[in-house]
Amino acid sequence: MPSFASELKRQLAARTGDPASPNRKAELAGLVDAAGTCDDSGVTIHTSSAAVARSVVRLWRSEFGLEPRLSPSGSNLFGQSRYVVRVEGNRAIQAAEELRAERERSWREAGSARVAFLRGVFQGVGSVTRPGYRRGHHLEFVHENEEFVRRVAHLSRAPLKVVSRRGRWVAYTKSADGLTTLLAQMGLHEAVLEYEAHAVLGEAKANANRVTNFDAANAARVAATASRQQEVLESLDPKTLPGALREMLELRLEHPDASLSELAQLGGLTKSAVNHRLRRLVSFSEISNQRSTSGRRR
After folding, report:
1. Does 11 share its domain with 146?
2. Same domain, 97 and 176
3. Distance, CA of 249 to CA of 255 (rounded, Å)
4. Of 4, 12, 13, whose CA–CA distance to 194 is shortest?
């Protein structure tokens, strides 16, 4: 099953098949800068995404009239197939120069060119965790060139932190807002909706757990209180009590697990009246116990 990041790259790559898609040169410039190398005879782009590889072929053809060579190049450390897209010749070298100028324009000007450049960079060196990932949110760009990574962070609408990791440079965000802001900037609105749906679901689950825990704790308190009252009230002699308290005593002893609200309903009383009478019964019991203890001492 493809990763969530792979699916997003596939979605971005599919857009280059639309002739009306704007700033396709800027997108190719982002791909070349992120995942490409230039030499004296041409340009090579490496990718682990078949969709991205096909997109690169389309872009070279549509924007520069070049006929690239697409070939497999083994697999990466995770067992994913790798692909190489290569263009050669004088026209390819001229195209690389034009893409450098396009990159400068994308860096300098805000707008759709910048967005297209970022889309290309993400397809080349971007990754993102799926919605609901247990370790939280994470989106990053990884590249060996520090200046390039800092430039990418500058182009992002969301703040990205830049660090060195195992000899490479990383621009990343662990913020839910930062992640969705950057995905929205690249036009991945369906992905943003998926993240927001998971956030709503997570909040609903958390609220349900809080309610469940509250109910459980409340039930435990009621049970403990009823148990203590049961022990205290069983020591009373109903004959020594006024009529109202005697009725309350009998009601409580008949329904030891009932809450105050339930006792009020059973006795046709208010909750306040039930609470007041139970307190008086407990007080009578304490007075009775004190007299009993005092009598034994004499």
Report:
1. yes
2. yes
3. 10
4. 4
For residue 252, report the phi and psi dihedrals to the nearest 5 degrees: -65, -45
Two tokens at 206? 């958390």
Is 289 found in the same domain as 169? no
C-alpha to C-alpha distances, 269 to 69, 204, 215, 244, 261, nearest whole angstrom: 88, 37, 24, 11, 9
Are 96 and 230 in a shared domain? Answer: no
- Does pLDDT of 33 surpass 70? yes
Q: CB burial class (10 A; 0-12, 13-18, 19+) of residue 194?
A: middle
pTM above 0.70, yes or no: no
Task: Choose the final residue of a domain: 128, 157, 187.
Answer: 187
User: Same structural domain for residues 214 and 293?
Assistant: yes
Q: Which long-range contacts (CB under 8 A, 24 or more apart) does 271-274 make?
A: 274/248
- Residue 236, φ and ψ in degrees, nearest 5: -85, 150
pLDDT digits (tens, 9 = 90+) for 264-284: 888 888 988 888 888 887 777
CA distance 113 to 216: 56
Q: Is residue 194 part of a domain?
A: no
Q: What is the rounded CA–CA span in Å between residue 45 and residue 30?
A: 11
Q: Could you give the CA distance from residue 112 to residue 265 in angstroms, rounded to a whole number?
A: 68
Q: Is residue 196 part of a domain?
A: no
The boundaries of the domain holding residue 239 are 202-297
